[in-house]
Every structure is written in structure tokens, then in C-alpha cells.
């Protein structure tokens, strides 16, 4: 039977949320290049309503989200225990997402509350792992400012907020990527929001998806530490049949539109934060990958350096990706629930046939 492995190129359903048609990324029809200048709350509203908010709606939406960035005491009590475990932060987040759906009265939690709680929980995981006290949300700050404030313990400046806001917007959604599709599969059974998100976080963890950003930084660190020529590093990895992390994409064969903007942000941050050497290595590696294999960097390539420049440890990079993507996951879960059709494909059976079970006499 002829079928596309990994569902490559298969359109499995319709969506009004985002599109990669023509290798241009748009959210509800708006090009990502223009939206990266918007506010995060505006973009979340757009993903959830497929239209931009007016001034009053935006004000109310922002205030509502910020007011909900509070975790129940029971969740904090359990988080203080879970987040200290010596597990990978994405494993902690997977458990935490599930936990958010089991503590207190969560039956009626709606997307604004769920998004707000996810962001605060991620900030709390970071603080607990760093042995730092938790920071309470500041009602005078917007969502992105609050997130940065809660992870860093100090109010962020305008420039940093603007950059991080663009990074969050660029990663907020990406039509039927692996984690979003996973969320939609679970949503198609009418399971609750937290179950869908727990599944999405699990899918994002893998190195072929969100887990790539952590591996990108490991690679850059190794090149820098060992003072290897990026070209030699690439050749050595390929000889070992390993992929070069942060390159290639199922859809974008001529470049990921997000990576172009992220490279600009990384190029601005790297010299300011004393990380010029990493940027140089990344740019040399990208040049070689393109010349030698025609492969372009994807979204995970420059976000790795951006997160490092923000002072984050590489082990939490994928969790930051989850911070950005939760809004998109929620948009898709809502759409799936509205337009639902159970996702249940077929498979081609290639195992043995004509087997017969004979009960052994001793078992009778
Ligand atoms: N390094 C080396 N070779 C590569 C790479 C890479 N990063 N990406 C693709 N190729 C080669 C691949 O070996 C294959 O060659 P051949 O046809 O000779 O076997 C060809 O390019 C096509 O690649 P593919 O793996 O069949 O393409 P795909 O659409 O199934 O995979 C991908 C896309 C993202 C899984 C793959 O490019 C990859 O593994 N990249 C590295 C991991 C990574 O950066 N993941 C992040 C993905 S984008 C953002 C996200 O989802 O988080």
C-alpha cells in the first residue's frame, strides 16, 4: 500500500487558526512578520477568536489573564515537592500540567485561566529549581512582563520585554505540528483541557520537536569549548549518522520564516550579553549547512541562543518553548471541540497472519 509516512503532506482537517501555505506563516490571515510587533495578549486573542481585539477588549483580556496568574495553594504545596526532583524540567512540566488539572475545582477551568496558570507554574518551576522564593504576580504588569518578573525576580526593562514578547508570538502557534496535533487527537475524544495539554507537553519534549533547542545549545557549547571548526563538527556528526539539531523542517524547505526574525533578535542580544562567540559559531554553522546540504535553520536554532542570553539554563529551553506554545495548543483544543470529529486513522497491518491459539492441556 502506498501512504505518506509520518502523515507528511497529508491534510487531516481544516483550521482557521494558522497557516503555513506557501511557506508563509500566518495567524488568522496575518503574517507573522507583522504580528511579531503586536502585543502577546493581542496575538492570543487573535488565535482564540480569529480576529484582533478592539482597545477595550484588549484591555479587558489582558486584565483577565493577569488576574488569573495565581496558583492555588494546594498546587504550590505539591509543586514545591515535585519541582525539586532531579528530573528533566520537561518531565516536571508534564507532571505539573497534569497536576494543574487535578488540584482544586478544575472542572470548569476555561482557557484564560488555564493559560495563566501554565505560565505561572512554569515560572514557579524555574524558581524552585534555582532555590529562589516564588514571586507574586504584579497586576500593573502585562502577561509577558509578569512572566519575566516571576522568573527573574526583577521587573524587566521595555526592550527585553519587547524582544521576549516577539519570541513568544513567533512560537505561539504553528498549525498541525506534532504537539498541537497530539493535543487535537486527545481533544477529539472530548477529554478535558489539561489532559490535552499534558499530551502536548509530552510530544514537545522530544528532540525532533521542541527538545531540539536544548541540543542546539549543547552542540554550540561543544564547538566553542573544543575549539572545533563548525564544518569539521558537522562532518563528524554526519559520519556518526547523527542529525544536526536546529536544521531542517517538514514544511519549510527554503527556510523557516521565524528563524529569520529570531536570528535578528539573537544578533542584537548576543553582543549585549557577552555571547558574541556563540553567535559567530551559529552563523558559520548555518552558512555551511546551507552551502553543503541546502538545509536552513529552524525555529529552535536561534531561540537556543536567545534563551541563553536571557540567563536561562539549557535544560529549561524546551519548557520556555512550552510557555510560548500553550496559547496555540489551547486555540486548537477549542477549535477541535467546536468542530469535532474523532481522530482515528487506520493502519496497514504487516504482522503475521493465520496464527491459531491452542490452549495447553496443563492450563485447563
Ligand atoms: N541534519 C542532517 N540531515 C538532515 C537534517 C538535519 N537536521 N534534517 C534533515 N536532514 C536530511 C535527512 O537526513 C534526509 O536526508 P535523506 O533524504 O538523504 O535521507 C533529508 O534531509 C530529509 O529529512 P527528513 O528527516 O526525512 O525530513 P522530515 O521532514 O521528516 O524531518 C525534521 C524534519 C525536523 C524531523 C528533521 O529535519 C530533523 O530531524 N531536524 C533536526 C531536529 C530539529 O531541529 N527539530 C526541530 C524541528 S522544527 C521546530 C519544532 O518542531 O520544534
Automatic annotation (TrEMBL):
One cellular component term from this protein's GO annotations in UniProt: cytosol
Q: Which residues are named in the active-site annotation?
A: 249, 300
Q: Which UniProt keywords apply?
A: Transferase
Please name the pathway. Carbohydrate metabolism; tricarboxylic acid cycle
PROSITE patterns assigned: CITRATE_SYNTHASE
In which organism is this protein found? Liquorilactobacillus hordei DSM 19519
> Entry's InterPro entries?
Citrate_synth-like_lrg_a-sub, Citrate_synth-like_sm_a-sub, Citrate_synthase, Citrate_synthase_AS, Citrate_synthase_bac-typ, Citrate_synthase_sf
Q: Could you cite one Gene Ontology molecular function of this protein? A: citrate synthase activity
Catalytic activity annotation: oxaloacetate + acetyl-CoA + H2O = citrate + CoA + H(+)
Q: What is this protein called?
A: Citrate synthase
What biological processes does GO assign it?
carbohydrate metabolic process; tricarboxylic acid cycle
Family, per the entry? Belongs to the citrate synthase family.
Amino acid at each position: 500500500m502506498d501512504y505518506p509516512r509520518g502523515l507528511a503532506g497529508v491534510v487531516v482537517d481544516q483550521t482557521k487558526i494558522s497557516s503555513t501555505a506557501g511557506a508563509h506563516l500566518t495567524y488568522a490571515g496575518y503574517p507573522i512578520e507583522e504580528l511579531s510587533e503586536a502585543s502577546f495578549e493581542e496575538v492570543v486573542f487573535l488565535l482564540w477568536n480569529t480576529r484582533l481585539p478592539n482597545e477595550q477588549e484588549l484591555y479587558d483580556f489582558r486584565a483577565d489573564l493577569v488576574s488569573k496568574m495565581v496558583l492555588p495553594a494546594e498546587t504550590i504545596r505539591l509543586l514545591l515537592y515535585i519541582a525539586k526532583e532531579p528530573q528533566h524540567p520537561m518531565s516536571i512540566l508534564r507532571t505539573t500540567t497534569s497536576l494543574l488539572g487535578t488540584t482544586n475545582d478544575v472542572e470548569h477551568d476555561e482557557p484564560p485561566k488555564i493559560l495563566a496558570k501554565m505560565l505561572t507554574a512554569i515560572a514557579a518551576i524555574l524558581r524552585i529549581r534555582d532555590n529562589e522564593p516564588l514571586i507574586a504576580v504584579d497586576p500593573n504588569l502585562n502577561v509577558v512582563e509578569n512572566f519575566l518578573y516571576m522568573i527573574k525576580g526583577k521587573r524587566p526593562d521595555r526592550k527585553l520585554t519587547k524582544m521576549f514578547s516577539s519570541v513568544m508570538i513567533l512560537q505561539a502557534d504553528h498549525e498541525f505540528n506534532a504537539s498541537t496535533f497530539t493535543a487535537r487527537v486527545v481533544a477529539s475524544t472530548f477529554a478535558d483541557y489539561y489532559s490535552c495539554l499534558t499530551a502536548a507537553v509530552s510530544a514537545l519534549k522530544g528532540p525532533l520537536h521542541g527538545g531540539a533547542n536544548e541540543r542546539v545549545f549543547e552542540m554550540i557549547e561543544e564547538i566553542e569549548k573544543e575549539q572545533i571548526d563548525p564544518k569539521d563538527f558537522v562532518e563528524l556528526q554526519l559520519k556518526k549518522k547523527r542529525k544536526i539539531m536546529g536544521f531542517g523542517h517538514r514544511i519549510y524547505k527554503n527556510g523557516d520564516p521565524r528563524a529569520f526574525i529570531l536570528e535578528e533578535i539573537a544578533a542584537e542580544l548576543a553582543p549585549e550579553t557577552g555571547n558574541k562567540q556563540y553567535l559567530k559559531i551559529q552563523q558559520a554553522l548555518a552558512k555551511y549547512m546551507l552551502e553543503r546540504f541546502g538545509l536552513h535553520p529552524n525555529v529552535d536554532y536561534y531561540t537556543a541562543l536567545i534563551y541563553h542570553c536571557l540567563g536561562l539554563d539549557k535544560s529549561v529551553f524546551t519548557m520556555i518553548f512550552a510557555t510560548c506554545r500553550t496559547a496555540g495548543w489551547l486555540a486548537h483544543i477549542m477549535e477541535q471541540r467546536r468542530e469535532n470529529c474523532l481522530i482515528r486513522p487506520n493502519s496497514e497491518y504487516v504482522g503475521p497472519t493465520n496464527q491459531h491459539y491452542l490452549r495447553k492441556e496443563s492450563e485447563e
